[in-house]
Amino acid sequence: MPSKPELTRSRAELIARSHACVRCKEYSYRKVAVRAVSETHRRELGVRWEATLICGVCGLEQLLGIDDEGDIAYVG
């Protein structure tokens, strides 16, 4: 069985943008920044990418952890 392709930064950004703001439930973001996590962070939390999103409606800053499967591991 072929292995699953690695989750790219552009795919992680698309996943992050498709997550609604936890406060106002809108999908409009003023800023989205996606970065790879450290190896320690990856081992401890099981995430590959971390996205910082600033809502364009209410201004809430959120932090999303995205795992290898493309699932949201945490929202903070």
Write down the overall mean pLDDT: 93
Strand content range: 25-35%
Which descriptor suits the 3D outline?
Answer: globular
Let me know the number of strands.
4
Q: What series of H and E elements makes up the topology?
A: HEHEEE
Share in helix: 10-25%
Strand order of the largest sheet: 1-2-3-4
Segments where pLDDT lies below 50 for 5+ residues?
A: none
Rg on CA atoms, Å: 13 Å
Instruction: Summarize the main sheet.
Output: 4 strands, antiparallel
Class by alpha and beta content: alpha+beta
Q: Can you count the helices? A: 2
What is the straight-line distance between the termini? 36 Å
Descriptive tags:
about 80 residues, 4-stranded antiparallel β-sheet, about 35% strand, globular
Structure overview:
The longest helix has 9 residues, at 9-17. The chain has helices at residues 9-17, 39-45; strands at residues 29-36, 49-55, 61-66, 72-75. The chain has a 4-stranded antiparallel β-sheet with strand order 1-2-3-4, with helices on one face. With 76 residues, the chain is an alpha+beta fold. 17% of the residues are buried.
